[in-house]
Design goal:
There is one protein chain. By secondary structure, the chain is an all-alpha fold. It has a single domain, classed as DhaL domain (Serine Threonine Protein Phosphatase 5, Tetratricopeptide repeat, Alpha Horseshoe), CATH 1.25.40. It is about 70% helix and about 0% strand. Strands 1-2 form a two-stranded antiparallel ribbon. Helix 3 runs antiparallel to helix 4 and helix 6 runs antiparallel to helix 7.
Length: about 210
């Protein structure tokens, strides 16, 4: 079963709830290595997205995601707005004109989102950022697509890989962003951006699964 426009709206609605519920958790993660505002910023951004959902009905999925991206850029503070905004904008470009998404579409969108984040944040894997969750997620998506498994299996593997990538940030030394100022003191903390990336992908898997 493909991902439909209705599925996409349900995902965005559910995601806003999940990020609101995890607002304090994400902010706690951000407190020792960032500005202690990641949860607040993500919650504010996706509440703004929810306000725009009625206007998204009838749009193709690419247009929906581009609207999400532009909303995040304009409402989310710090580095998260430009990075997540870019991720959704690039995913929207990759799915332009589509009203249904198959496995190959999801791979293309993940790849476009990751490349956008890497270009915008000048980040590579191993630097304790959201890239460390998104990179294994893309690898998993490509592997599942090659195996010919269905979309729900692909999304679950993507979520699992992002979770593993998120946990792998704990022992990393941060070399990008605010956390990099802490040097060795950044070791031992889970990256909040990798965590919110996992929550986004987990919620998609749960919505479609």
């Amino acid at each position: 079963m493909p991902i439909t426009t209705e599925d996409t709206i349900r995902w965005l609605q559910r995601l806003a709830v999940v990020l609101h519920e995890n607002r304090d958790f994400l902010t706690q993660l951000d407190s020792p290595i960032g500005d202690a505002d990641h949860g607040i910023n993500m919650d504010r951004g996706f509440q703004a997205v929810v306000e725009k959902l009625p206007a998204l009905a009838g749009m193709d999925i690419g247009s929906m995601l581009k609207t999400v991206g532009s909303t995040l850029v304009s409402t989310v503070g710090g580095a998260s707005g430009p990075l997540y905004g870019t991720a959704f904008l690039r995913a929207g470009i990759a799915s332009a004109g589509k009203h249904e998404l198959d496995e190959a579409d999801v791979v293309s969108m993940l790849e476009a989102a990751l490349e956008g984040v890497k270009a915008r944040g000048k980040a590579q894997p191993g630097e304790k950022t959201m890239v460390d969750a998104l990179t294994p997620a893309l690898v998993a998506a490509k592997e599942v697509e090659a195996q010919g498994l269905d979309l729900s299996q692909l999304l679950q593997r993507v979520s699992d890989a992002a979770e593993a990538g998120m946990k792998a940030t704990i022992p990393m030394l941060a070399t990008k962003g605010r956390a990099s100022y802490l040097g060795e003191r950044s070791v031992g903390h889970q990256d909040p951006g990798a965590t919110s990336s996992w929550l986004i992908l987990r919620t998609l898997a749960e919505t479609i699964g």
